[in-house]
Design goal:
Blueprint lengths: L1 H8 L6 E5 L4 E3 L6 E5 L4 H4 L5 H9 L3 E4 L2 H12 L18 H12 L3 H7 L18 H15 L7 E5 L5 H10 L2 E6 L2 H13 L6 E5 L11 E7 L10 H11 E14 L11 H8 L9 H10 L3 E7 L1 H16 L2 H4 L5 H19 L3 E9 L14 H4 L1
Parallel strand pairs: 1-3, 5-6, 5-8, 6-7, 8-9
Antiparallel strand pairs: 1-2, 3-4, 9-11, 10-11
Helix pairs in contact: 3-11, 4-15, 7-8, 10-12, 13-15
Length: 394
């Protein structure tokens, strides 16, 4: 069977060694840098036309082991998946009717895993979103501070303003905005673990009086026109295509006329929002972000516009997210022994594949990420934004 597999993959000439447990091995190219150790011989038939979800699932189910640098593993897995028939190369578009219970369950699954696990590979402020690199030499911690400041500058935050942070995570952006821009912040999250640690970090920073974080669904935000500015970072990926209109309607409703709304989120490559092909999207949906849906930039802009928000600035941070994920993956890879004491073996395998795979995916332009800045104009169509972006960079 190993010989048959070699025949089907021989044209690829990969730096890959296939090794059967307690059996022979086969090199698919010279100087193999990666070894796939096959623990289940039944997997050999599937490897003749493997998709990325088949490979990922085989690893997390311990049907195979991987040896070698994790980023090279991702590159070789991608090349292996190119042998898959064309009818398996793209997943169908699935849209879920997101309700509060479903979203709370999905958020808890992903974010309540273990604060200590996340702390292993995130920066000190626990920013679990794309950093902003002034240079590729920036540290992860510096890139996250850069990101916080970039968002605050785009929002033109001023002392005394009220900021709504939708999907506030561990509160890093809220603390930065309160500490350096003199605003009061209301943040909401659906993760109890995030909320508990964020409140603790706020208290340690002496900011509890001006940062109010709550466990709350965005659909339960009370009142209207309560905030001068609204920011949403890494949140709308969980909203679902069917709910985007309602989501942006609520953000528009919460901000005062003349106020700014910033949406920072991952966007799909394809205009119809279907997942990336060859099984990568399927794997992420099944094991990492259940019920997550990525809208295309055009869809996000259209939905914001329909809800009365005028889009005034759009910036792609795709290369920044590739760098961010590479830092996260490297941090996790250097802490595998400690990570294994904090989460289950299966969870750790999922996260190894996920972080490295997403870094690879952003590098390859399989997915993108955009900061979309919008204003809620006054009734006469006016707003107070500067004529240029010069103030952001001054």
């Amino acid at each position: 069977m190993l010989t048959q597999l070699s025949n089907s993959l021989s044209k690829m000439q990969l730096p890959l060694r296939l090794a059967l447990q307690n059996g022979p091995s086969l090199d698919l190219g010279p100087d193999p840098a990666v070894t796939l150790k096959i623990l289940d011989s039944g997997l050999l038939a599937e490897l003749t036309h493997p998709t990325l979800d088949v490979l990922g699932e085989a690893y997390i189910d311990r049907r195979l082991e991987i040896q070698g640098p994790i980023m090279q593993v991702m590159e070789i897995a991608d090349k292996l998946s190119m042998a898959a028939p064309s009818d398996l190369s793209a997943s169908p578009l699935e849209r879920t009717a997101h309700d509060k219970a479903l979203d709370a369950e999905a958020i808890s699954y992903h974010y309540d895993l273990s604060n200590d696990f996340y702390r292993l590979w995130l920066d000190p402020e626990m920013a679990y979103s794309c950093g902003y690199f002034h240079s590729s030499q920036d540290s992860l911690a510096q890139a996250q501070l850069n990101k916080f400041d970039h968002l605050c500058r785009k929002l033109r935050l001023k002392p005394g303003e009220r900021l709504l942070d939708v999907g506030c995570g561990w509160g890093g952006l809220a603390r930065h905005a309160a500490r350096h821009y003199g605003v009061t912040v209301c943040g909401i999250t659906l993760s109890q673990a995030q909320l508990d640690l964020a409140r603790q970090m706020n208290a340690q920073a002496g900011l509890s009086e001006i940062i109010d974080l709550q466990l709350q669904d965005y659909r339960d935000l009370p009142g209207e026109e309560q905030f001068d500015k609204v920011v949403s970072v890494g949140m709308f990926e969980h909203v679902g295509h069917a709910n985007l209109g309602e989501y942006f309607r609520i953000l528009q409703q919460q901000v005062k006329p003349g106020g700014l709304v910033m949406n920072h989120g991952i966007t799909a490559k394809h205009t119809d929002g279907r997942p990336v092909g060859r099984g990568a999207g399927t794997f992420i949906g099944r094991y990492v972000f259940p019920h997550g849906e990525l809208p295309h930039l055009a869809t996000a802009v259209a939905e914001m516009s329909e809800q009365g928000l005028e889009v005034v600035d759009v910036e792609s941070l795709r290369q920044h997210y590739a760098l961010t994920l590479e830092h996260w993956s490297s941090n996790l890879e250097s802490s595998l022994a400690q990570a294994s004491t904090l989460v289950s073996d299966k969870a750790l395998r999922i996260w190894r594949i996920y972080l490295a795979g997403c870094a690879y995916g952003f590098r390859k332009n399989w997915i993108n990420i955009h900061q979309i800045l919008a204003v809620r104009p006054h009734a006469d169509g006016s707003h107070e934004l500067p004529l240029t972006r010069a103030d952001i960079y001054s």
